[in-house]
Design brief:
With about 90 residues, this protein is α+β, with helices and mostly antiparallel strands. The chain has three helices and two strands.
């Protein structure tokens, strides 16, 4: 029951995390380098290979009610809207 009551807070907590992460990086500073060695559906990549492109990283859990009700539909809408401009990984 307590988990269901907290579900509306998940998107807010995610937004708070992103704001804090953004302020920790600082404006105008380069993004730290990272490397993904392997995706579930393909080869890995690095941030350097994606330079100059918009990168959206969606962190979610299947058990998270807020993630399932917010993140999934949002990614689908963006995918439909920008389908001719994206290179999904």
């Amino acid at each position: 029951m307590a988990c269901d009551a907290a579900a509306p807070l998940y998107p807010l907590l995610g937004l708070l995390f992103l704001i804090m992460a953004g302020s920790a990086l600082g404006s105008g500073k380069p993004t730290p380098e990272w490397q993904i060695s392997e995706w579930i559906n393909g080869e890995g990549t690095s941030l350097a290979e994606l330079r100059g492109k918009v990168v959206v990283i969606d962190f979610f859990q299947l058990w998270c009610p807020g993630c399932n009700s917010f993140s999934g539909p949002l990614m689908r809408r963006w995918g439909e809207k920008y389908r001719h401009q994206i290179e999904p990984y």
